[in-house]
Amino acid sequence: MTDATTRAMRQPSMADVARAAGVSAQTVSRTLRDSPNVNPETRQRVLAAVEQLGYRFNSAAKMLSSGRSHTIGLVLLQSGGYYSRSAVTAGVEAAAGEAGYAVSIATIAGLDTGLMERSLGKLADQGVDGIVIAVPLISVTQKMEDITRDIPTVTVDGSRTAGARVLGIDQREAGRVATQHLLDLGHRQVWHVAGPDEWIEARQRRQGWQECLAVAGVEAPPVLEGDWSPDSGFRQGQILAMIPEVTAIFAASDEMAFGVIRALRERGRTVPDDVSIVSVDDIALAAYCAPPLTTVRQDFYASGAAAVSLLLQAPDPVDDAVIEPPLLSVRSSTAVPRL
Amino acid sequence: MTDATTRAMRQPSMADVARAAGVSAQTVSRTLRDSPNVNPETRQRVLAAVEQLGYRFNSAAKMLSSGRSHTIGLVLLQSGGYYSRSAVTAGVEAAAGEAGYAVSIATIAGLDTGLMERSLGKLADQGVDGIVIAVPLISVTQKMEDITRDIPTVTVDGSRTAGARVLGIDQREAGRVATQHLLDLGHRQVWHVAGPDEWIEARQRRQGWQECLAVAGVEAPPVLEGDWSPDSGFRQGQILAMIPEVTAIFAASDEMAFGVIRALRERGRTVPDDVSIVSVDDIALAAYCAPPLTTVRQDFYASGAAAVSLLLQAPDPVDDAVIEPPLLSVRSSTAVPRL
DNA sequence: GTTAGAAATGGCATCGATAACATAGGCTCG
DNA sequence: CGAGCCTATGTTATCGATGCCATTTCTAAC
Fold it and tell me: B300-330: string of b/e by CB count within 10 Å (b at 16+)?
């Protein structure tokens, strides 16, 4: 095993490139980082050497000496079906990639504060430059604040940590728009199948519904709570089907809405003839299942992207940002009430 | 700015811990890595110091000196709606987290080879210890092979690179099971709405369908190709609705199936009375939309998890692994054909 | 009572890139 | 024509943990 052999085996380093190009390692470094003070001719030679040796820089070394990892962490809830989260993820990835940042993910299995702490810790260990939290946890512990103190953090539709900025779609507005649509059609009362109360989205949508009813001078009926799944919608729908005066329902997600619709139909109540239903998300299937769902769409993708730019561009705490307003797609799950 | 101030400001290093515990940095390192030769008493002291100073190790330094990053890269297709991919992701994350590995994601926007190369390059730059490719790309270029040569790679339901191992659910079997179910009900012919041909899944499901028909001595009708979206299913459904002899359809995904169903219904053909339809995925909504869908479920989560364990446990190329077989859920979108 | 060997620990070089400083040549301007 | 200043480049120390080797202490065995 000669020295040459050894050198051939490991990844080429900057020193190797420098040798090949007949310059110092520092010049290579400058070239690769687009430093202004490099002679174009030298640059050419360096780039040629890089190409020829197949050099890739070592991110660990880069990070160790520069102190920055060019990585941002993304905390996610590990749960198959929640539409909005996956859209946020895509937005984060795209925006981070654009800016030359890598994205490291940490998923948590449940809404437990301990799990959350562990995830943040893992990301901190990895030395991420920033963190996007896309988890709807309400409570924030001391320990979480300790961890996030040193790392810029943006929370998407979640809880507010001391130093963290929060950015979110106006979920209250979504709830308001949905509810108002039903009232406009002539319904006197709107029932609500909410998401789990620990979810900020769920809470805000419920608030929007409540406020809208209050403005209209209607007393809000009791809230039925689901867990976002079609099955939970189905169970709450079975209850609603037994209450004759129910003519309009606002479901907090499309999937729950379809569950509710199925339960109603099984009890002989049709949508939209007997009951109108409107929900939030506008998943791809909303327009194609029977009946096509009237639903409020929100741009979660943009929200994820915005989180990243907030993280990277503004080092100082900034006031909350808000993405574009929710948009109602009227389809055939809603109609004027029967007389 | 005294020396003490400076020290208080940066993250404590191993040397700081060592000083606090009255040992050498080396001993701290050994303690933290569970090296056998450390006196229990010393270990206690070190751990106490770690706790007190709030020490977190610096992953860059660790990686630089040990040469391993404890990170695995995951290549994904950036596309909102594909059910199976997000399940794979969850599986990868869970298994990697379990093993103490971080997951870094690289999404690609389309099935372009150049994009793929760039993503792999980014992951290679990050120094990942392994890569899981969850992208159904067929072609593999020289450059991709160059990159993956040095890094262990597992492909989930995708193309085979020279050194890469491939692991997959038996999609052919899924296609076969679905088709056989329709034949068993008494249908003489089964039509197929396939996924895009660049997708390995789509191809394999189509193969299973084809083979099953061949075994039954039926000549396969022309294939209609969609793009997985409900909308594409709808468009192909409009065509199928115009062909009177169509009584049974196998759709390559649940979302497309719902699109097909809607198109059929708009042309006055009901499911399952006039036409039976079966698909693959078993998304949460499959049981709750109208009609509840007969569909084949596959364990993509397990597939993702298996990819990681393959990556971490077996350094040498191993033969392909196969996850548990697909399972048919019979609901009400399929029935015996009308006489 | 010496020696072999294990257990516990410390010292030093090292990984690869970068920051900070140093230097050499070329240009401008009074 | 020399002071002053840019430009292009090289030198050296540094980031923080680890690998390897050296050292000390202790125990067991002959």
Answer: bbbbbbbbbbbbbeeeeeeeebebeebebee
